[in-house]
Design brief:
The chain is mainly α. It has two domains: about 130 residues, no CATH class; about 80 residues, no CATH class. The protein has ten helices and no strands. The chain starts with a helix and ends in a 12-residue tail after the last helix.
């Protein structure tokens, strides 16, 4: 019988893979933590390294989240087709929480990682594609209007627990999305301060003077 600890640890380690840091080294030979916002995420790579590298990191971070809730359970099933843990929704939620936690608090960079937005998107792709689709629509609308990645990401995070209730998801899933929302907003606390002060950087130049 496979215990919960091994798959959850695997999800955390998967999430901990510092894709943005590795991309900074591979594409430009820099430590991404010393450039731009200092954040170990796709947006900072986009700004500090380049468009191609930023998109590459974003895709990898999404895949990390999806792999945790899709591939790890498949591996468990391969090892033990009758594993009881596969019958529990909480198991999949725990995998999602672990991979996002790994991205935000990576063990490979002294527990300082990214903000978990792309990895959360990957998790939601595996657990609830419908909610992910609406969150992405919200992200696109907010970003299209104001051109702030942080504002779009915060808005999407806040919408997750609300949509979980609307879609009639389980209490455990709703609590999971609420925790992800709180952690996501907290991770963007410096961005929120800059948004209030009017000093937040846009991903693209604004047409306004």
């Amino acid at each position: 019988m496979i215990s919960w600890s091994i798959p959850i640890l695997a999800a955390y380690i998967l999430g901990s893979l510092p894709t943005a840091y590795l991309a900074g080294k591979a594409f430009k030979g820099i430590d991404i933590r010393e450039f731009g916002s200092g954040n170990v995420g796709a947006t900072n790579v986009f700004r500090s390294v380049g468009r191609a590298a930023g998109i590459f990191v974003f895709v990898l971070d999404v895949l990390k989240g999806a792999a945790a809730v899709i591939l790890i359970p498949l591996a468990v099933k391969k090892i033990d087709p009758n594993a009881d843990i596969l019958l529990h929704d909480v198991f999949y939620i725990a995998l999602g929480a672990a991979v996002v936690a790994g991205h935000i608090w990576t063990c490979f960079l002294k527990f300082k990682g990214g903000k978990g937005v792309a990895t959360t998107a990957g998790v939601m792709a595996g657990l609830s594609p419908a909610i992910l689709g609406i969150c992405l629509l919200i992200w696109v609308i907010i970003f299209s209007i104001w051109k702030f990645v942080s504002l779009a990401s915060i808005s999407s995070a806040v919408s997750m627990p609300v949509l979980s209730v609307v879609f009639g998801k389980s209490l455990e899933f709703t609590i999971f999305t609420a925790v992800i929302c709180i952690v996501g907003v907290y991770a963007h606390r410096s961005n929120i301060r800059r948004l209030i002060q009017g000093t937040e950087n846009r991903l693209v130049s604004s047409s306004k003077s």
